[in-house]
Design brief:
Helices cover 25% and strands 36% of the residues. With 112 residues, it is of the alpha+beta class. Strands 4-5-6-7 form a 4-stranded antiparallel sheet, with no helix packed on it. The protein has a 3-stranded antiparallel sheet with strand order 1-2-3, with no helix packed on it. The model has no long low-confidence stretch (mean pLDDT 81).
């Protein structure tokens, strides 16, 4: 597959690995973190407490699950085919981001 998928600023973006050209961009729910995982011709993305399945060819949304009752916390997307080291790296990144957000909020509150 010659595509790279990014989760950034509430969007999923598909880029050509060869040229870097943007192939498509899909806006999802507002979120500070947009996680993505690609398998076969589907891109799964988590944003704003919702899980989406997108068509890897054109970025169209196939389905959306509101994940009712699970809140808006961080989410790691994995499958049986994914490397456990990669999952552990994603968890560490999410935890570091959460710690940075908490520290920034605390500093802003104490300076007010």
């Amino acid at each position: 597959m010659d595509k790279l998928f990014l989760g950034i600023s509430s969007h999923v973006v598909s880029l050509s690995k060869t040229t870097g050209e943007e192939l498509w961009k899909t806006k999802l729910k507002t979120s500070t973190v947009t996680n993505v995982y690609c398998e076969n011709e589907h891109v799964f993305a988590y944003a704003g407490g919702h899980l989406f399945s997108l068509n890897a060819t054109d970025g169209s949304i196939i389905w959306e699950n509101t994940l009712k009752g699970l809140g808006y916390g961080t989410c790691i997307i994995a499958s049986q085919h994914q490397n456990s080291a990669l999952i552990a790296e994603q968890v560490a990144t999410q935890q570091a981001l959460a710690a940075t957000t908490v520290a920034t909020s605390a500093a802003t509150t104490s300076n007010s």
